[in-house]
Design goal:
Largest sheet: 7 strands, antiparallel
Strand order of the largest sheet: 1-7-6-5-4-3-2
Radius of gyration: 14 Å
Number of helices: 3
Distance between the termini: 27 Å
Length: 145
């Protein structure tokens, strides 16, 4: 099964990066641009009004690692996992290793998602460093409609 992988060096402490990934309001700032909902171990993300675009089960959340399992959203995403591994750097910053794993096959949709994940993770980096976020729609580089 193919995976999407990204690595970012972020000039912000791991606790700051963790907060932006682990909270619905944090995810809104760098990714969706719309209010999201976190209820217990379920994170629902929205890119507009109506139904959530994706629903994640939070299967792991500790200071250095957050993992979501996709339970709702695009059919190619269902059953995949999204992991954010955060490493502390000697300079006080963070190394982010991102994986979107378990795709059934590499295809055009996966390629578009890889492009968009890279853009949204760059938004996370810029925002955590204090340079401003670029969430949806600004961060979407590969559009489907």
């Amino acid at each position: 099964m193919p995976d999407i992988l990204h690595r970012y060096t972020i000039d912000a402490p791991p606790a700051r990066v963790h907060e932006l990934i682990a909270t619905a309001s944090g995810v809104e700032r760098w990714w969706t641009g719309h209010p999201n909902r976190r209820e217990g171990e379920t994170l629902s993300v929205f890119f507009g009004d109506g139904d959530p675009a994706a629903v994640f089960e939070v299967v792991e959340e500790e200071p250095g690692r957050i993992t979501w399992r996709v339970t709702g959203g695009p059919s190619d995403w269902i059953g995949t996992t999204v992991t954010f591994a955060l490493g502390a750097r000697d300079d006080g910053g963070t190394t982010l290793l991102f994986t979107h794993a378990g795709w059934a096959e590499g295809n055009e949709f996966m390629a578009g998602c890889a492009t968009n994940w890279g853009s949204y993770l760059a938004s996370l980096k810029r925002g955590a460093e204090g340079d401003g976020f670029a969430p949806f729609p600004a961060g979407e580089l590969s559009r489907w409609s």
